[in-house]
Amino acid sequence: MTNWVEREARRANRNLFLVNGAILAVLLCALAADWQYYANFVLGCKPISAEELASLTSPSQRFRNFVTVRGTKSLSTGYRDIVQHIENSSGRVVSTETKDEFMLLVVGSKGLLVKAPSAAPGLEFSGELVPTDDDVRRQIITPLAASDPNVAKKILPFTLDATDYRTQGYWALGLGLPLFLLACWNFSKAFKRAAEPQLAPVWRQVSNYGNAEQLSTHIGSELQAANARFGGLRLTPSWLVRKQLFSTWVSPVQDIVWAYKKVTRHSVNFIPTGKSYEVILVGRHRQRIEEKMSQKKVEALLVEIATRVPWAIYGFNADLDNAWKKDPAGFVAAVDSRRAQATARPASAGS
């Protein structure tokens, strides 16, 4: 039968597997949904002849739809993407710039619509073959068909996007690759912890307080009884325990050397909207927990801990914060001195 620490290590490990497996599944589904685009993004643009281009009836008919096209003549269509910069306060147009423009590139006996950066020079363009937008059809092809049907029939039924066709791939690379590497890293940790539960954070933490297996039995038995809850914290006669998705924080109550209430004031546009409260608990083994809960719960927990560990330091100020950061061992020694004095008083009174 597994002990409590081992069960907690397995629970956290299982969640690590499940969540990172879900991340990998989402990444694979996103890749599979647009696999042709990502394959072309990696392979790059391939030159295409005028004859092969003329034989296409759809941009996805050819697997390598990232292409380089060279024409013999380019004509301006007059259709442009205009970007207006508007002042928020007045709604006034501050500036206008031409982002992209559509031109008609003559390739063999056909015409190819090319979406290119404004004033793009030359007769060679690299980009992605995409369906022609409905707005482009209405603004360019429909008027041309009305005035010269023979010319309109020679325009290919797709567009070469030579502007930001690689942007999607760069975004996918920038977001997907770190997530993929993170998931792989977490999988490797999970596999190691599955083989050796002693590598789990909860096992290492409990080992700071003594023999992990013996303490595990003690913690598990105390958790089986009804215990007080303060937010996500459970307070047993001897232990403080908080379970999270990937970890379990545990500390002996007697280990607490510093505890205080943290109040955060919230506002929107400098208008106060309320406060939130947290309890901060710091132990002699550098274990630290911050748990949000109601003000009433924070104060009740601090009173309970102060009753059990009266020699700990309570409250916050800059001097205490600096003392802990600069010399935690000295801070703990000062608390131990307070404990020795507190336990010596009853003995003196009795004698």
Low-confidence stretches: none
Shape: elongated
Task: Kindly state the number of beta strands.
Answer: 15
Category by helix and strand content: alpha+beta
What value does the Rg take, in angstroms? Answer: 34 Å
Strand order of the largest sheet: 1-2-6-7-5-4-3
In DSSP terms, counting alpha (H) and pi (I) runs of 4 or more, how many helices?
11
Order of helices and strands: HHEHEEEEEHHEHHHEEEEEEEHEHH
Largest sheet, if any?
Answer: 7 strands, mixed
Average pLDDT over all residues: 90
Would you give an account of this structure?
By secondary structure, this protein is of the alpha+beta class. Helix content is 45%, strand content 31%. The protein has helices at residues 4-33, 35-43, 50-55, 134-147, 149-153, 167-195, 201-207, 212-224, 295-308, 318-326, 328-350; strands spanning 46-47, 66-70, 73-86, 93-107, 110-117, 124-130, 155-161, 228-230, 233-235, 239-243, 248-252, 256-268, 271-283, 288-293, 313-314. It has a seven-stranded mixed sheet with strand order 1-2-6-7-5-4-3. Strands 8-9-10-11 form a four-stranded antiparallel sheet, sandwiched between helices. A hairpin with a 6-residue loop joins strand 3 (73-86) and strand 4 (93-107). The mean pLDDT is 90.
